[in-house]
Write a structure and sequence with these properties.
Layout: H1 4-13, E1 18-24, H2 30-42, E2 48-51, H3 62-73, H4 78-91, E3 97-101, H5 103-107, H6 111-120, E4 125-128, H7 137-146, E5 149-151, E6 153-154, H8 160-167, E7 174-177, H9 194-202, E8 208-211, H10 217-226, E9 230-233, H11 235-243, H12 248-267
Parallel strand pairs: 1-2, 1-9, 2-3, 3-4, 4-5, 6-7, 7-8, 8-9
Length: 272
């Protein structure tokens, strides 16, 4: 399994939390997207969570939806995204790379082909946002055959049965929703209960990373204090790109400042 990069990351961080920014590949174009990824990593991102542009991104709020539309308007295709991923992997051989995609993108050509090509591009994990674990058998099989960690979402109100089922994967990380609904930095995450993270740990789940609603250093600290291993910031990161489309220098400066501040919060959120 190609989960050793996640395992190595968590081992390296130890009591320090992971900060993982999300961006849409090809937003606003392939060249700029490549440079954005360079900035994220240079500024302290521990891993990457990346989206492939898709017209019906039902789990995404308007900010990330617009990112997908910008990329598609620039002519970016899934094949372009795979080529970009190969370049990213070549430059950053140790950085964990996760994809957050939708089922139509996976089944469009063939499930096995999608995962094989993702693995060849250097992808470590894939979260198919609109496929729950109970319906994911063919996705799990194809992922594991290709050496990719299948990632699943744990909602804040997940019951013990759901937690046990997701914990069976034990690879990569566990995506813990900071709140119900779609992605977005305009709504606060829910209060995170330490009991939820303890239940995941007791079930043997992969380390929990909180996503949805993460937009400030305070959110990072709250997630770590509750027992998470780190946090993903999607809409807050993509919004910076959107605000600076006409000034790429300012875009990279703002992204770098954001990542540095969010990463610094993981250093002050030491967990026992």
């Amino acid at each position: 399994m190609k989960t050793n990069r996640y395992e190595a990351m968590f081992a390296r961080l130890k009591k320090e939390g992971a900060f993982i920014p999300f961006v849409t590949l090809g937003d606003p174009d392939i060249e700029t997207s490549s440079a954005i990824i360079d900035t994220l990593i240079a500024s302290g991102a521990d891993a990457l969570e990346l989206g492939i542009p898709f017209s019906d991104a039902v789990a995404d709020g308007p900010v990330i939806q617009r990112a997908g539309f910008r990329a598609m308007a620039a002519g970016v295709t899934p094949a372009d995204c795979l080529r970009l991923l190969k370049n990213v992997r070549a430059k950053y051989p140790e950085v964990p790379i996760g994809l957050l995609v939708y089922a139509n993108l996976v089944v469009h050509q063939d499930v096995k082909t999608f995962y094989r090509e993702a693995a060849e591009a250097g992808v470590d994990s894939v979260l198919v946002a609109d496929v729950p674990v109970g319906a994911a058998a063919p996705f799990i099989e194809a992922a594991e055959t290709a050496g990719i960690a299948p990632i699943f979402v744990v909602p804040p109100n997940a019951d013990e049965a759901a937690i046990r089922e997701i914990a069976k994967r034990r690879r990569g990380y566990t995506y813990f929703l900071g709140r119900a609904g779609v992605t977005g930095a305009d709504r606060e995450m829910q209060t995170l209960l330490p009991s939820r993270f303890k239940a995941l740990q007791a079930a043997g789940a992969a380390p929990a990373i909180v996503g949805f609603g993460i937009s400030t250093p305070e959110h990072i600290r709250a997630a770590l204090d509750a027992g998470a291993a780190g946090a993903i910031a999607g809409s807050a990161t993509v919004a910076i790109i959107e605000r600076h489309l006409e000034d790429k220098t300012a875009m990279h400066e703002a992204l770098a400042e954001f990542v540095r501040k969010m990463k610094a919060a993981t250093l002050s959120g030491i967990r026992d």
